[in-house]
Amino acid sequence: MRHGDRVKKLGRTREHRRALLRNLCRSLFIFEKIKTTLPKAKATRQMAERLIEYAKRNDLAAKRHIYRFIPDHKLVKVICDEIGPKYVNRAGGYTRILRIGPRLGDGAEMVFLELVEQSDASAISQRRKLIERRKLSAPVKETKTKEKRVKEKKPKTKEKEEKRKTTEEKAPKAKKTKKKKSK
Questions:
Q1: Which residues on neighbouring strands pair with residue 34, listed in sequence order?
Q2: CA distances (Å), 139 to each of 87, 133, 135, 142, in order?
Q3: What's the gap between Cα 160 and its chain centre?
Q4: Which residue stretches of 32-145 are H helix?
Q5: Does domain 14-132 have CATH number 3.30.1330.60?
Q6: How far is the C-alpha of 51 from the C-alpha of 69, rounded, in Å?
Q7: How many CA atoms, within 13 angstroms, populate the side-chain half-sphere of residue 5?
Q8: What integer is the mean pLDDT of 47-75?
Q9: Strand-by-strand arrangement of the 33-37 sheet
Q10: Taking the model in full, what pTM does it have?
């Protein structure tokens, strides 16, 4: 029986499904219109509308809740400052699904999932550039070989140098012995 089983599985594990929905919501809020399959769009719509409800409140707790699902500070700011205020007078229905027909490869029903009140194209492209701008990490320098690192090590004080020498002298050198094979 399926009592209480209300989650559309989408053929994925729980972690994979949550990651998929987060990525679709992220794309929806960046581009305000995405192309996907009907079941994915229905599941994404549910999450996106819940996040827009929080964005309408636009307080710290709401921003933190949105950040749980979309861990990108820039995008959370865009959602709360630009997208949320558009829907203050609306009680629900922030997204719409437009069916565009079957996909040629496997016949899956494709749809556009879009926000009802969209920004102009220049604002969307500016938002995309702002969010996708990431600092690249510095190029990795070549690592020094072990021999060079050993030569470059210098103790900080004379006491440490003396202590190191005495411990090296006291430590007996291990002799290599061959074990005889038993038959």
A1: 113
A2: 44, 18, 12, 9
A3: 46
A4: 38-57, 60-69, 73-78, 84-86, 121-132
A5: no
A6: 8
A7: 5
A8: 93
A9: 33-37, 109-115, 95-102
A10: 0.68
